[in-house]
Amino acid sequence: MPWQTRWAPTPGELSACVECGLCLPHCPTFRLTGDEAASPRGRLNAMAAVASGELPIDAAFDEVMSFCLQCRACEAACPSLVPFGRAMEGARAELAAVRPRGRRMRARILGRWLGRRRVVGFATFWAAVGQRIGSRRWAPRRIRQGLAGLRRLGFRGHGVVGGRFEPAGDPVATVGLLSGCVMDAWFPAVHHATISLLNAAGYRVTVPREQTCCGALAAHDGAAEAAARLAARNAAAFVGVDLIVSNAAGCSAHLAQYGDWAAAGQGVADRAVDAVALVARAIGEGRLPQPAVDRGVVALQDPCHHRHALRMTAEPRQVLAAAGYTVVTVDPDGMCCGAAGVYSILRPATAGELGVRKAQQVIATGASLVASANPGCEMQLRAHLAGRVRVAHPLELYAEALGLTDR
Predict the structure, then answer these.
(1) Residues 6+ positions from 215 with CB-CB distance below 8 Å
(2) Residue 37 confidence (pLDDT) above 70
(3) Which domains occur in the chain, in start order?
């Protein structure tokens, strides 16, 4: 059967792999199973077999594609620069087109509901209720664990959408902040820290009300048309700003690939910058200070989309060092924590095993504080650390060190 959608993996993407195997030790699902079909080259071979008509798009192909976390660790290890993440998104778009059962509702949630602030606000209210009663025995274990991964939610919003925040002097540039699908409702403190730091660095910050979810979750799950609609809407919302900033690693990595998703998307990609990288740049240029205070040790968990997709490892360490912390790396190999967007919901056993391993690595550092710059990673860490270690965004810790925000 030929590919059905315009998002399908291209012959060039599928032929780029030379099957050297250097990706294998970096792939979490291969490490867990030792199964070639659970490796990047195994998945690429499966895609090529479908493209040539040797294999159908059936339940077996679905299993091979769906088991992938899309952490993109293989891309960082690949000498042939195979765009594995793009190929995986294309393969899942094919699955969604040919085998829609079970995906139609997810596409609606990821492509429509997450982009609506009222829907997210409604879910946030009931999650806040659940946090207050979730410890009771009658609550299912998975619900208790999911609620444990969230920060303490309030019943009233403290978001920044629609706001405009001015620096003390003349602005050096205008930054548009991506509010994200859940960041504004679930992680408002991260937004406030980000805005405070960018203002201190001389940036005007605007948070357009017309924006929506970046579309990363929809793209990863194969809801390609929904992801394209979200990208087009954001491209229109951020017209007129000099830079487009996200403080969630997964969103930042997706914005960098907007040229693949919308006609005006390349204009977004060209202006997109991760908030941690922009703050690190301001520190390096002397526009943000480095307090001479020893704040102890912080363990840093590198989100996959920082380490593998954006190849960004120095900047979080620079920000934490500027805050006065001694940084220890949770995992030098950068193995995925298992959150992976909606993966932890769809495959809780695999995600749970990876989450336990990551929590054990954090505890092994001996640190009482761990920094992570992605909401999914933070929630995974919180769920498996069970309150033993504080988890915070690097920008929160730096803003606290400068006295711009309270803990």
Answers:
(1) 111, 226, 227, 228, 229, 230, 231, 234, 254, 261
(2) yes
(3) 11-99 (1.10.1060.10), 290-402 (3.40.50)
